[in-house]
Design goal:
Rossmann fold; 2 domains; binds adenosine-5'-triphosphate; 20 strands; six-stranded mixed beta sheet; binds magnesium ion; alpha/beta
């Protein structure tokens, strides 16, 4: 790449207890360009960018911004130098408005503005880049895509011209991702430097001007997207060939293990989210739920897991009516649940990996404390089987990288040998290698006779793994079709609210 670099990171070294997260990393970025950082889970991507944004201090190495050496002691110093970051897990205050969040923490006199003035400035920036979000809305009222735009606005409001986004599209729908890319291209064309981390190779190839690949803390490749492809990137990231297509055996479905009958439920805002949803999932079967995010998928999973009130209708797991009986009844009937929100519902950050892995199983083992060494062995085996990258099973769960936390939850839920498995976005945030292995695990569960409900916004994933596909739209099932021979067009129409009967008759 030509010209004067905006960012130069030289020989960056960062250690955590038992981990060399960045091992003499060099990273360069140019103005007006979109830089992608790729790498498997735990490769050190977030760490490197947390260093650039002043959150962590490296043990070794130097950082230059516009040719000048900097020494960031805090994110505030980085912001002063024009570096802003949107984190993997958003850092907004739910009960405050967009504008309040944006001016939060700006206590220098020059920032003492009335909310009205601040709101005006926010609107100006929003219009300049097409970042549409209501500045007076409270965070909890916003969709994930809107919350992300609020985070980007926050960085721009503080004068960021180097914008780092850590897995910005992991939580977005394909449509929202497209919108984000338009915004990123616009920012780059106005001279900003964009650095973004992603596991989605197709989008990286489509949008990046340059790609840096990390593996186990080291840079293993600097590539031009024009001269590479998915297979090569995947191989570079994980150090082996990755299969993008998996074989699925033909299996006859058995007895229904999960029955959802005319279920009605409300969302967090008290509005109807599920309006008479019915379906059955059988042994040896994966039923995929396709739909645009926010059409009732989250509420559906919560209702089955006993985490949300059923207003009307029934949920039956392995023959037991568990309607409104709470999460324990669902677990006891044989439910495994890979929840959508892995930091809030899926794990306890301040507890060890060991404790998180045995959260559920200790209930079944009377006198489990006597079997402490047995449990440790089991946890060690799971860490190995699911390839969870951690210095030890005594490490706190909150210190795991995003993808490794997801693997931890999977390991716990799959190893509990459930009758019914509800998997919500099971591969979100996972690298290509881990994605392949999770999909294999799900197919294996199917071959062992489990009934699996797969909720995913990744239509490729739903089509690849499912036996049947149910499409949800505004809390109603638009139709259920066999996955074999299903055509994207029909599914797309259902996702937009047309019922299958109508499509068939036209
Ligand atoms: N604050 C911390 N304390 C201890 N270890 C940490 C901390 N932050 C990260 N690590 C460890 O450093 C390594 C690199 O983590 P990092 O979060 O940078 O990975 P990543 O490439 O962003 O992965 P992912 O794709 O899963 O988000 C991991 O082994 C992780 O467990
Ligand atoms: Mg990360």
């Amino acid at each position: 790449m030509e010209g004067t670099p905006v960012v130069q990171m030289r020989n960056i070294v960062k250690r955590f207890p038992g981990v060399l997260a960045n091992d003499h990393v060099n990273f360069t970025a140019y103005p007006g360009k979109i830089h992608a950082v790729l790498g498997e889970n735990g490769a050190g991507k977030s760490t490197l960018m947390n260093i650039l944004s002043g959150l962590y201090k490296p043990e070794e190495g130097e950082i230059f911004i516009n040719g000048e050496k900097v020494d960031f002691k805090s994110p505030r110093d980085a912001i002063e130098a024009g570096v802003g970051m949107v984190h993997q897990h958003f850092m907004l205050v739910d009960t405050q408005t967009v504008t309040e969040n944006i001016i939060l923490g700006l206590d220098e006199p020059k920032f003492v503005l009335s909310t009205g003035e601040a709101e005006k400035k926010v609107t100006e920036i929003a219009e300049k880049y097409g970042l549409y979000v209501d500045p007076a809305a409270r965070i909890w009222q916003l969709s994930v895509g809107e919350q992300q735009r609020a985070e980007i606005l926050k960085a721009l409001y503080r004068g960021a011209h180097i914008l780092i986004l850590d897995e910005p599209t992991a939580v977005l729908t394909p449509q929202e991702s497209e919108e984000l890319f338009v915004i990123l291209r616009e920012m780059a064309s106005q001279g900003h430097t964009i650095i973004f981390i992603s596991h989605k190779l197709d989008e990286v190839l489509a949008i990046a001007d340059h790609i840096t690949v990390l593996r186990k803390g080291k840079v293993v490749g600097e590539v031009d997207p024009a001269n590479t492809d998915k297979a090569q990137l995947a191989q570079m990231m994980v150090g082996r060939k990755v299969l993008f297509h998996l074989e699925k055996k033909d299996l006859e479905p058995g007895d229904p293990m999960l029955e959802v009958e005319d279920v009605h439920a409300k969302n967090d805002k008290g509005l109807p989210a599920l309006k008479g949803v019915s379906f059955k999932v059988h042994q040896w079967e994966i039923l995929g739920i396709a739909g645009v995010a926010g059409n009732g998928q989250s509420e559906l999973a919560q209702v089955i897991a006993g985490l949300r009130t059923v207003e009307k209708g029934r949920v039956v797991i392995a023959g037991n009516d568990v309607t409104n009986k709470g999460p324990l009844a669902a677990i006891r009937s044989g439910l495994g649940h890979i929840p959508e929100n892995r930091t809030e519902d899926g794990s306890i950050g301040t507890m060890s990996i060991l404790a998180n892995l045995i959260l559920k199983s200790y209930r079944d083992e009377p006198g489990w404390f006597l079997n402490y060494s047995k449990l440790r062995k089991r946890a060690e085996a799971l860490v190995k089987e699911f390839d969870i990258q951690t210095p030890s099973i005594d490490t706190e769960a909150r210190l795991l990288s995003g993808g490794n936390l997801q693997k931890l939850i999977l390991a716990r839920e799959l190893s509990a040998d459930p009758e019914v498995l509800v998997a919500v976005h099971p591969t979100q945030g996972l690298d290509v290698g881990a994605t392949e292995s999770v999909r294999r695990h799900l197919l294996k569960q199917r071959e062992e006779g489990r009934a699996i409900l797969l909720i995913s916004e990744d239509l490729d994933e739903v089509m690849q793994l499912s036996d049947r596909i149910a499409v949800i739209y505004e809390g109603e099932i638009m139709g259920i079709v066999p996955a074999k021979g299903a055509d994207r067009n029909t599914i797309g129409l259902m996702m937009a609210g047309t019922r299958i009967e109508k499509i068939k008759s036209s």
